[in-house]
Amino acid sequence: MAAPSLARYKRIVIKIGSALLVDRGSGLKQAWLDAMCADIAGLKAKGVDVLVVSSGAIAMGRTVLDLPSGALKLEESQAAAAVGQIALARAWTHSLSHDNIVAGQILLTLGDTEERRRYLNARATINQLLKLGAVPIINENDTVATTEIRYGDNDRLAARVATMTGADLLVLLSDIDGLYTAPPHLDPEARFLDTIAAITPEIEAMAGGAASELSRGGMRTKIDAGKIATGAGCAMIIASGKPEHPLRAIEDGARCSLFAASGTPVTARKTWIAGQLQPAGSLHVDAGAVTALATGKSLLPAGVRSVVGQFERGDTVAIIGPEGREIARGLASYDAVEARQITGRKSGEIEAILGYAGRAAMVHRDDMVTTILRVQEEKDATHA
Ligand code: GLU
User: Which of 149, 318, 337, 355 is the most interior residue, by most CB within 10 Å?
Assistant: First the structure.
């Protein structure tokens, strides 16, 4: 693969893993951060918008607070993040200022990207920062994140930020230089993959569960991030952040894995639907519905076999084919209780069953993103 030129992208989200920024003994890796900021300044000088998703709040906080190694309790990691995030923000502000770049801090909670109104609000703030020439420094708001309500890893958070802001490249920098066919430390036969045209089930299977002590994300969350980003037309690079000037290193030909963006542009609203991290429920449909959806039709109650989960009208639901694979995602026109009542019934019967004339479709095609085509390609690839 030819070395990717980063300056040909318009808007790049760079995710930086904790271990790159923070040393457990000595704290902030100042020289590395300064070199990173010089790389960012270089991209900005070429007209590229740069956003940073910086991990390291918890790692930094536990160093400052001198907490013992090992797993932290929830309230300990929240406290560590409170201490570490200030230090992290200060470090970014200081290092970027060497190149006269202003940093702006954005701390997100899960609801800020999963609830549409809050999503639009967060997006507007980030876009305004970019318009003003600042570099948004983004992290999860770990001081209020709880086990149930959090992204938990900055790989997927960064992918959500990339799709939210219409970025065309997401760069994940960590201690892993890319995707291998198997975990390289366990399998001597493992091959490195420099280009990934589509995230097929085989590619997904290659992602082990490994995560280092300082960070939560392993290859699993990186592939999940890739699905979110590439599905919204944003390419993704996984590269090692270990060298000083890691962005320059990518351009100079350092080994990395490039995941191609999927070709079909979708509307911003559909991007939001497709990237939802946790659909509220699922609709299991029959083969006839799969065919209808593949040709761009809406999902009618007649094609639904069962409804799983509790959801409100307007929540995102996954649409699952007879083989158990997700084939589409969309906004439910009915809540779960009503959806169950009209499951398998003709649209003309809805009024008699529910007592009012609702929408004919369980999920309207304008509110739906299908993944069927990709599923078909994946099947072809699997059987080739
Ligand atoms: N948000 C966490 C932190 O700043 C890091 C999450 C991750 O490592 O992916 O400490």
Answer: 318
**pLDDT-derived band of residue 45, with 50, 70 and 90 as boundaries?**
very high
Do 366 and 330 reside in the same domain of the chain?
yes
Q: Which domain holds residue 313?
A: 279-383
The residue whose CA is least distant from atom 2 of ligand 1 is 55
Residue (of 83, 86, 88) closest to 22 by Cα position? 88
- Which of 270, 304, 339 is the C-terminal boundary of a domain? 270
- Tens digit of each residue's pLDDT (9 = 90 or more) over 320-337: 999 898 889 999 999 999
Contact 308, 261 (CB under 8 A): no
Structure tokens at 33: 């951060």
Which residue from 21, 72, 140 has its CB within 8 A of the most atoms of ligand 1, so it is best to mutate? 140
Please choose from 28, 156, 157, 216 the residue to mutate so as to test ligand 1's pocket, defined by most ligand atoms within 8 A of CB. 216
Q: From CA 179, how far away is CA 363, in angstroms rounded? A: 36
Is 214 within 8 Å of 84 (Cβ atoms)? no
User: pLDDT over 90 for what percent of the chain?
Assistant: 63
Any atom of ligand 1 within 6 Å of the Cβ of 56:
yes
123 and 21 both lie in a single domain: yes
C-alpha 107, offset from chain centre: 16
Contact 293, 373 (CB under 8 A): no
Enter the pTM of the model: 0.78
Asked whether residue 1 is domain-assigned, the answer is no
Q: Give per-residue pLDDT as tens, 150-169.
A: 888 999 999 999 999 989 99
Bridge partners, residue 108, by sequence: 140
- Which residue has its alpha carbon closest to ligand 1 atom 8? 215
Give the position of tokens 């970027």: 96
Q: How many domains does the chain have?
A: 2
